[in-house]
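Reviewer 2 asked us to include a model.

Predict the structure of this chain.
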Amino acid sequence: MSAVPVFVYHSVTDDPPTWSAPYTVTPRAFVEQLDRIADGGLTVVPLRRLVSAQHGGPPLPPRAAVLTFDDGYADFYWTVAPLLSGRELPATLYLTTGAIHPPGGSATGSLLPPARMLNWRQVSGLDAYGIEIGGHSRTHPQLDTLPGRRLYDEIVVCKRELEDAVGHVVDSFAYPHGYSSQAVRRKVQKAGWTSACAVGRAFSSPEDHPLRISRLMVGADTTQELFQAWVEGRGAPVAPVPERLRTKGWRAYRRVRAALGRPVAC
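Predicted model (structure tokens):
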């Protein structure tokens, strides 16, 4: 089983809102991490290559890695994309469509607190440039606590909005907060998404489930030593990893709170 680090980033900036600071890395730290990936001999591949391998397709390079980014912060356009371009690195950008706004207009709304987000013109430009655009729901809820109709809106309508924006099929999804369930994954698959990323805090692998791809979250508290361990294939389990009883209990608790109108904040 080959450990594949699928790194998940959120914002890359020196000046994040207070609420997103734990999920943010500075541009300097991001450059250092890209250097570690290169110096460690990892080959960054598009997410679709990992998914193809998970379906029995061509094998990955011996030491592969994947870069993903969640939510759709404006700094991806101004900071991240130029750095990736300079190194010719592929990446997947998962968008919360309700947080993306038309140029000069307002977003339709999401559960994410205020932050500088991409606009639809920038999304189209990134897609044309070769960044894979993926879905991250419409409003960024805990999908495994939602009733059927709301789940449909978050999964199906998100896909429709993205495809209308970029003019082609979009088939990669990421679960907000990393939360999913068997029922959620069935709806994701039925909607036409062919892959979906969780978090899992584990390495992915060709044996990982393409609708529950494990990722390693990179944030403000990710030390150089931990990131280097990930580059070397150490410091985390390798998926597939059985769902823990604690995870099931946490889901049940969140569902009860949501049903009472007091959802757990994430």
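The longest strand covers residues 64-71. The longest helix spans residues 148-166. We have added this to the supplementary material.
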